[in-house]
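Aggregate trends can hide what the representation actually does to any particular protein. The sequence in question and its C-alpha cells are set out directly beneath this paragraph.
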Amino acid sequence: MTDALGIALAGCGAMGEIMARTVYSGPDAIRLEAAIDPDPGRAELVAALTGATPFGSLSEALRSGRIGAVDVRVPHHLHVGVVLAALAAGCHVLTDKPLATALSDARSMVAAAGDAGLVLAVAENYPHLRAVLDARAALDAGQIGDLIALRSIRAYEVGGVWVRDGWRQGGGPSGGILLDQGTHQVSLLRCLGGPVEAVAAVGDAGGAVSLTLRLASGIIAQSLLTWHSPGPAAQAEATALGTGGRLDVMVDYEAHEGGARVWTAGEVEHRGKENYYDSHRVMVTDWLRAIESGAEPVVPGREGLADLAVVLAAAESLARGGAYVEVES
C-alpha cells in the first residue's frame, strides 16, 4: 500500500531525522517517497538514509504527482500551513504534536480533513504506548479500586538536536516547555482519567511549570514539567492512586523496560516491555491502517485539538497568576 500511496516527510530537522532513522529506513522500513526541507543538507541527509527524493518545499514535492500522504515534522507554528496545503492537495496527514499553536488553526485543520474525507492523525506517543493501554485496562477492571487522583511528571535535561535550532526554548510562537511537552502530559492524563474541564498553572523562574487539572469525573490531576533536571532513562511518568492500590506508567527511553506497574495489597505486577521510541513506528502504521481501512486513527485530529485546548487554557492561567481557566470544548 505505501508504495502506491507515496509518503512525503515534511521537515527533516531533529524529529524528521529521528523518523527517518527509526521508521523510514532499515530492514523493515516503511517506504518514503519524498524528503522535504528548505535546508538542502537536511533534505539530502534524510534522502540518503531512506532512498527518498529530496525536495525544497511541499509544493515542489506535490508537483511530482507521487505523493498521497504527508508526515509533518516542522516547528509547531508551521503545522497549520503545511497541513492545510497537504489536505488541499488531497493528501492524508500525520502531524507531530501539538496539532497547532492556536485553537482556530487546529479547528481549521480538523474541519478541512473532515470536509475532504481525509485522515488527519496526530503523532502523540502516549495513547500508543503499551504501558498506557495496560494501565487504562487495569483502571477499567478496578484493579486499584476507585480512582482517587492522578499525577504525571516530564522532567529531563533538554539538549543535543532538540536545542540546535533554538525555537523550542525560545520566546517565539513555538517556544516553551508548556506547548512542547504539555500536550504530551495532557494526552497521558486524559488517556487515564478522561476529559479535562479546567486547569490552573503556575511557573517559576527556573523554568518549571506545574498544572492542576480538574477532570470531568471530579478527579484532580497534577503534572510537573521541567527541562532542567537530569533523570533516569526509565522513569514513572504517571501514577494513578486508587482506594485499593496504585499503578505507574513506566517509560523507558533507552532499553525496553517500559510498561505498567500495578501495586495491590503488597504485590507488584509489571506488565509489558517496551521502549518509548518504538511508538514512532506504531503511530505511522496506525495512520496507514486508518487510511486503508477508513477507520479512525488512534489519535485523530479532534483529540489533538482537545489536548491543545487544555494547554492553551494552562497558558492563560499562567498569565492570570494561576487562576483556574475553563477548557474550551
Notes: The chain has a mean pLDDT of 95.
